[in-house]
Design a protein that fits this description.
Layout lengths: L7 E6 L4 H11 L8 E7 L3 E3 L4 H6 L1 H6 L1 E3 L11 E4 L2 E6 L2 E4 L4 E3 L2 E4 L16 H17 L2 E5 L3 H13 L4 E5 L12 H13 L3 E3 L4 E2 L10 E8 L4 E9 L11 H7 L28 E3 L13 H20 L2 H7 L18 E6 L3 E6 L2 E3 L3 H12 L4 H5 L5 H6 L1
Parallel strand pairs: 1-2, 1-9, 2-5, 9-16, 10-11, 10-15, 11-12
Antiparallel strand pairs: 3-4, 6-7, 7-8, 13-14, 14-15, 17-18, 18-19
Helix pairs in contact: 1-8
The structure holds flavin-adenine dinucleotide (FAD).
Length: 410
């Protein structure tokens, strides 16, 4: 029988989708007899920002205000768990890490849920609520003053942003340029892509497919308000007053350097977004660090897994695996001796759900559930409106912040 009351330190870095689910599930164990268990949630941001609702936050200041939830309210007041508002700087070894505020933390188990960063203003980059709101406000004012808006990238985010901008500012010219031959990720049915083109058309959005916009090297976050003429690979010019980049994102893995130096090989992929390598159990891909997990956008699972709801599912898998290790007292053997450490068999994450729901302005939308495509139909509009467009499922996220007093005070 495992000694449930022993001291166990779990650090979860990143409290957004993957991290929130895992931290919550692991923290709940302390109510189930794991009396020495302590979860430390670390995030460089003071507030969770509901990125899923960004298309609405962009055009609705009241909603934007509500889309920030304070991490300080994440754990109940009387719980043994804590939130630390700082940035993970380095994972120094298999049991220690260093934060940017100088704090050193010990961990028996570590979950990295650090996600990725979008290059353009389709998510907030500021670490405070005020800073994040200022970023969104600046872009909203830019949109109000603009005559023409260019959205680059026709994945779900680009389609949603183009739809909400066009529905809010019907008198402005909105153009969506996409490098692919159809909108939305191609693992979804063609009917969904066609429906998106048709419904954007209803809002007078010009959709240009098979065209890659050439971006100057210095095209940064703040450089996207102001008149510019960008050129596509076809030679067509796209003049616009605001440019919204909805393509590409980068994963930070610099904090892995000490571990990589120790084992003499990279734990992340150098090309592309720089994803962190994991095993199907979501453990870091190395025999040396069986107690470190990576869930969500940061890991190298296929792009079809890069969704908030799948990040949450991965957070659940990682938490279940950490619990399994705790129940076999793996942390005890791992901290005492390196030679006879046997890692128990753990659950594997498998991507079984294929679903997408894309609001196109407040009234229209397309969706696919399992294999059923809802593209051009009115049923799609109805479903997307009922389930997503109203508040982009922000209500579900509020359930993660039980410390209501503090949440309401914000
Ligand atoms: C505009 C937009 C709309 C989207 N719409 C949808 C949608 O409708 N449905 C859907 O399923 N998905 C959607 N997504 C995708 C979804 O948001 C991501 O898949 C999801 O955010 C990934 O979650 P995550 O927990 O892996 O990482 P993230 O959400 O990226 O969170 C990472 C967290 O880690 C913190 N962090 C990062 N590095 C450090 C560090 N070094 N130290 C401390 N803290 C750190 C960050 O501050 C952040 O809180 C959308 C994305 C965007 C940008």
């Amino acid at each position: 029988m495992a000694d449930k009351s022993r001291n166990i330190s779990i650090v979860v870095v990143g409290g957004s989708y993957a991290g929130a689910v895992a931290a919550k599930k692991l923290a709940d164990l302390s109510k189930k007899g794991y009396s020495g268990l302590k979860v430390t949630l670390v995030d460089e941001k003071s507030h969770y920002f509901h990125a899923v609702g960004f298309p609405k936050a962009l055009v609705d200041a009241k909603y934007a205000e509500k889309a920030f939830l304070p991490f300080a309210s994440f754990f109940e007041n009387d719980s043994p768990h804590q939130f630390v508002n700082s940035r993970l700087k380095l994972i120094t070894d298999a049991h220690h890490l260093e934060l940017e505020n100088g704090q050193q933390l010990y961990y028996d188990y570590l979950l990295l849920a650090t996600g990725g960063k979008a290059p353009g203003p389709i998510n907030v980059s500021a670490t405070s609520k005020d800073g994040g709101l200022a970023e969104i406000d600046q872009l909203r004012v830019g949109l109000q003053d603009a005559n023409s808006i260019l959205v680059i990238g026709g994945g779900a985010v680009g389609v949603e942003v183009a739809g909400f901008v066009a529905a809010t500012f019907p008198q402005k010219k909105v153009t969506l340029v996409h490098s692919g031959k159809r909108l939305l990720p191609t693992n979804f049915r063609e009917g969904v892509s066609n429906g998106a083109v048709a419904k954007l058309g209803q809002l007078d959005v010009d959709v240009v497919l098979n065209e890659r916009v050439e971006l100057p090297d210095d095209f940064g976050h703040s450089a996207q308000i102001g008149h510019k003429v960008l050129r596509g690979t076809s030679g067509t010019e796209y003049p616009s007053d605001v440019q919204i980049l909805a393509v590409g994102f980068k994963v930070n893995s610099a904090f892995l350097e000490p571990l990589e130096a120790k084992i003499g090989s990279l734990l992340h992929i150098e090309d592309g977004p720089g994803f962190i390598r994991v095993r199907p159990t979501l453990q870091l891909d190395s025999d040396s660090f069986p107690n470190i997990f990576v869930a969500g956008d940061a890991n190298d699972l296929p792009m079809t897994a890069k969704y908030g709801f799948k990040a949450e599912m991965q957070g659940g898998t990682a938490a279940a695996n950490i619990k399994k290790l705790i129940d076999t007292e793996f942390d005890k053997s791992f901290s005492e001796s390196r030679d006879d450490v046997v890692v128990p068999a753990l659950g594997k994450w498998s991507d079984m759900v294929d679903a997408i729901m894309v609001p196109i302005g407040p009234d229209l939308g397309v969706a696919q559930m399992l294999k059923v495509a809802l593209g051009c139909s009115g049923i799609a509009n109805f479903l997307v409106r009922q389930i997503k467009s109203k508040d982009f499922m922000l209500w579900m996220r509020k359930g993660y912040y039980p410390n209501k007093q503090q949440t309401n005070d914000e």
